[in-house]
Design a protein that fits this description.
There is one protein chain. It is built from one helix and 13 strands; from the N terminus they run H-E-E-E-E-E-E-E-E-E-E-E-E-E. It has about 160 residues and is mostly beta strands. The chain has a domain at about 30-125. The protein is globular.
Length: about 160
């Protein structure tokens, strides 16, 4: 009666899904969890931890606390951590507190950036998927139907 449902137990130790209102689900990624992906990742909420993916978008209103490694990174929200990406774009609503290591970087008017920027020719290796030199990440399953809580991309 008060225990976890079978669905919640099957999601693994790093993710938790709960329903906040009818028809609206929330996926929670606990701190200390690394997310490693070979494709695109879009963050609409709040994430604490490391993020490694080919393409990363931090949407307006989203917050990322931790390091990011990506081939391509677009920030419209807030990031607090070290960024390593070949291509970085800070949109006008971006707020970044941390160092950025990049091959190319574009900063729109009104974006805020506090830290050091360093241009490097090979920030990450692009010949294969995004590499991580850290410990093996936990397997985390996220309900893809959780979506962005009704948010739409501003494209």
């Amino acid at each position: 009666m008060f225990g976890k449902s079978k669905e919640d137990r099957d999601m693994g130790s790093g993710a938790q899904r709960s329903t906040t209102t009818q028809g609206e689900a929330t996926s929670t990624i606990l701190s200390g969890v690394s997310i490693v992906g070979n494709g695109a990742v879009t963050i609409f909420g709040h994430v604490e931890g490391e993020l490694h993916a080919s393409t990363v978008v931090i949407a307006e209103g989203a917050e990322m606390e931790g390091d990011i490694v990506a081939e391509e990174l677009t920030i419209s929200g807030r990031v607090d951590g070290t960024i390593r990406a070949n291509r970085v774009k800070l949109n006008g609503t971006a707020v970044v507190d941390g160092d950025i290591f990049h091959r190319s970087m574009a900063i729109e008017e009104n974006a805020r950036f506090e830290g050091a920027s360093r241009r490097l020719e090979n920030v990450i290796q692009t010949s294969s998927r995004v590499q991580t030199n850290r410990h093996q990440p936990q397997n985390t399953s996220i309900d893809s139907n959780a979506g962005a809580n009704g948010s739409q991309s501003a494209h």
